[in-house]
């Protein structure tokens, strides 16, 4: 089934998957301790701040990741200029947003969480170094990414454990988020400089390339903004109607499904994307076969995630979390089906990138956003966290499956993926 992908393709996937498995193992060890130590209210506050700032991540990242990877695959000789232009574009975007946040809290709002907002927003400056991942992914050098992330993971987990034993507050754990960004970026720079692949003297900003990149990534900026909005809607409604405790419960569900399992599938798709881009450019038949194989892999993984949490979800919450998190059992059983749906959408998005049809991303995420907003308004006041889980699950279905069924080209793409020879 997997023979359409080369050994090198799956070697890239191997490192990504191993990274996520190690994150899963360490996450099971340390994250429940952090959640239990801080309690549902402080976790709810921390995750709420992360989610609000997360609404700005499309502007921090400018949708450049997939576009730059594709452009480096298509034009490898231009990688220095592509990376430099992407870096400076993101730096300017971060500067404008961070200045806006400072002005907002200085003039308009005097929130008790002001320091937390500013700390995490400042940390996105160090996240700029992930532009080096664009080149590494395009070249399928995922082992370097693995080394960087696992080294950082080991340091951060050690510091997190120390924070738990010393009973530090949520500001300490927010600071570790920033440190994680910084460590990964420094490792990328050191390795690429050692391999003589990074020459800052050649980093020149190109206005023409910048305009082209932004023109290509603009639909992704819009669609990613819609994604972040409709993901954050639930937490806004939960905080308004039920407070930080409810957000803490929902954060637990998201941690178990997204961080521990969903990210594995996301990594596999990202690792195999350069292979898809290459085949789309050179061999259409092989490209279609790769889409089919990737769909089968992700369907099996998504179904496995759902079955796993249906069988062991209650045990995990009882064994690793304090009694305050017992309320997460029912929403976990609902939300664990989300990966099965969204993996289809992830593959479809990569297809849209290859075919330069990213405007459809805007339409489908707009549909999901409207659906989630309406369902949150109807369900969360009555069913609390269960209502949030139902609203997100249905909105994912509308975004990733219903839109494809409503769009004529999408239906053809779906038939192509599902066709069995």
UniProtKB/TrEMBL annotation:
It is a multi-pass membrane protein. Keywords: Cell membrane, Membrane, Transmembrane, Transmembrane helix. Signal peptide: none annotated. The chain crosses the membrane at residues 21-41, 53-73, 85-105, 117-137, 144-164, 170-191, 212-233, 253-273, 293-312, 332-349, 361-380, 386-406. InterPro entries: Poly_Biosynth_Transport, Polysacc_synth. One of its GO terms (cellular component) is plasma membrane. It is found in: Cell membrane. PANTHER family: O-ANTIGEN TRANSPORTER-RELATED, PST FAMILY PREDICTED COLANIC ACID TRANSPORTER. This is Flippase.
